[in-house]
Amino acid sequence: MRYSWFFILKIAVALLFVSVNVFAQEAVLTEAEKFYGTELRTSKKVQHPPFEWGDCTVCHTDAKGEEALIMDPPELCAMCHEAKDDKEFIHGPVAAGACTACHDPHESDNAKLLVASSINELCNSCHQDKDEFLRNTANIHPPVKDQCTNCHDPHTENHLYQLKADGKQDLCVMCHVDKEVWISTVSDKHGALDRPRKCLECHDPHGSTNPKFLVKDTNKELCLSCHSESLTRDENGDKLLNIGKHLDNNPDWHGPILWGDCAACHNPHGSNNLSMLNKPFPRTFYEKFEEDNYICFQCHEKEKIMDANTTTATNFRNGADNMHFVHVNKEKGRSCRACHDFHGTKEYPHHLRTKTKFGKINFPIRFIETEDGGSCAPACHARRHYDRVTPKVNLK
């Protein structure tokens, strides 16, 4: 198909006109509109019905609308609109009767006659601390970034801050349904979720400079804000280790502690594993060895435990006999925690415990390291030696 030059010129001019119009529209956007967007902007003006009818006397004492209002807001607005002050917590402008702080009484370029072209721009024209927060915070909670009214009612609600549900947890699980199911069904629950602020103990609901909207820089720092005191398990009343004190006294820390990442091993929302671990670990001192029952293997090579003979997988060997295999990989295997502390140690290398708990007995391991091996003499056997170069024969 062939087109005349005149037709092509008309198309080019039209496209140029559209481009200029788009550019002009972008150019007149305010700085706030550029940041918050214009999702409330309508294709044509929204008019308040009395203004659209041209009947100023619905609201004004003068037919031209130049005289005083027939009554003050919010009573004036309530003549037509349902009252918005019937719940326990009332938004400041509503309580003050300042409907026009948010709504234009005549006409607006925006939906609901709002005086701003986005919800967040409108809210933050008063809540300037939140404006600064949104502009300077790396991780913003998606519903906050979308619009404040996802969580807050702009008029009135029965929950603090006009939230649509209790903000400590009920509001959160309206979206995070998976978390509601999880925390209610797991066997090893996190006591923090029963503390007064619940989800807010750990997360900032608006956002944070930290991942997951955490209120501390690292999850280790967050955990220690509670676990530096004596706590008990809600399920059975067992006393929990004061981890903060333990780490202060035992500076040779396990890798995840050094990284500041307690969540590498523990699920902060609870789990079905011992001590809220992310993956299984034996619950008892003795337990049949199963490869899938050890969270340790998400970092440590399984050959340390599974190879009966090796010269490379571990230094805990008598010649080529793997002593980890001897202790752990059997029907009545000892779990790793029989000898190792997973948080930190001080006296011995390899995160070896000074003492280990067996039933009601807390007995010393009495480890002695040598150049090519070492020995130990816990209560479960007499002193036994191992040597990687010159294998030892233990008669007892």
Describe the structure.
This protein is an alpha+beta fold and 396 residues long. It has 14 helices and 19 strands. The strands form 9 sheets. Strands 17-18-19 form a 3-stranded antiparallel β-sheet, with no helix packed on it. A hairpin with a 2-residue loop joins strand 17 (368-370) and strand 18.
Write the layout of secondary structure elements.
Elements: H1 5-28, H2 31-36, E1 41-47, H3 49-53, H4 75-78, E2 89-90, H5 92-95, E3 107-110, H6 119-124, H7 128-136, E4 139-140, H8 142-146, E5 156-157, H9 177-185, E6 207-208, H10 219-224, E7 231-232, E8 239-240, H11 243-249, E9 252-253, H12 255-259, E10 286-287, H13 303-306, E11 317-318, E12 321-322, H14 323-328, E13 333-334, E14 344-345, E15 355-358, E16 361-364, E17 368-370, E18 373-376, E19 384-387
Antiparallel strand pairs: 1-3, 2-5, 4-6, 7-8, 9-14, 10-13, 11-12, 15-16, 17-18, 18-19
Q: Radius of gyration, Cα only, in angstroms?
A: 34 Å
Q: How many strands, which pairing sense, and closed or not: the largest β-sheet?
A: 3 strands, antiparallel
- Tell me the number of strands: 19
End-to-end Cα distance: 101 Å
Portion in strands: 5-15%
The residue-averaged pLDDT reads 91
Give the % helix.
25-40%
Largest sheet: spatial strand order: 17-18-19
Which structural class do you get from the secondary structure elements?
alpha+beta
Number of helices: 14
Contiguous runs where pLDDT drops below 50 for at least 5 residues? 20-25
Q: Could you say which overall geometry the principal axes of the C-alpha atoms support? A: elongated
